[in-house]
Design brief:
Helices cover 32% and strands 36% of the residues. By secondary structure, it is an alpha+beta fold. The protein has a single domain, classed as Nuclear Transport Factor 2, Chain: A. β3 (71-83) and β4 form a beta hairpin. The protein is globular, with a radius of gyration of 16 Å. The two termini are 23 Å apart. The relative contact order is 0.17. The model has no long low-confidence stretch (mean pLDDT 90).
Length: 149
């Protein structure tokens, strides 16, 4: 099912652009504002945050210390509208200081259209890609290799 319009695609990619701009500015409040009040956010280490306010507050603490001066880099792998008001976006991304390097993580974003027409992130999952482990798995059990690999 793909029921998107050009305007919808532009609107949801604009959310990702605003997330990157907020990250790059070290602005936790702006980052959290792109999420719904009940959003779920799972980091690549398995931490679960609930709601845009908590996501923003936690990220501000990270921006102020461990992620200070970092830049968010990503590329869209796929955009799939699953209904008129929902979309799943898969990206590859990573955080860098200075030049952008290899994108070691894969993310899943689920966005929903609000009553106002604005799109917000309702769920986010971030997973660190472990290429060596993946290659070993494919060699040991070839049937586990996805067609896209």
């Amino acid at each position: 099912m793909n029921i998107s319009t050009t305007a919808d695609t532009a609107a949801v990619t604009a959310v990702l652009d605003r997330l990157a701009a907020a990250w790059n500015a070290g602005d936790g409040a702006a980052y959290g504002a792109e999420f719904t009040d009940d959003a779920t956010y799972i980091t690549y280490v398995g931490t679960l945050y609930i709601g845009g306010a908590e996501i923003g507050t936690a990220h501000q603490a990270l921006f102020d210390r461990f992620l200070k001066g970092t830049q968010l880099a990503s590329e869209i792998v796929s955009i799939r509208f699953t209904g008129p008001d929902t979309v799943l976006i898969i990206t590859r991304g990573d955080v860098h200081k200075g030049r952008t390097g290899k994108l070691h993580k894969i993310q899943t974003y689920t966005l929903v259209r609000q009553a106002t027409g604005e799109w917000k992130v309702v769920a986010f999952q971030n997973t660190k890609h472990k290429a060596l482990m993946e290659a070993f798995s494919f060699k040991a059990q070839p049937a586990t290799k996805p067609a896209a690999a």
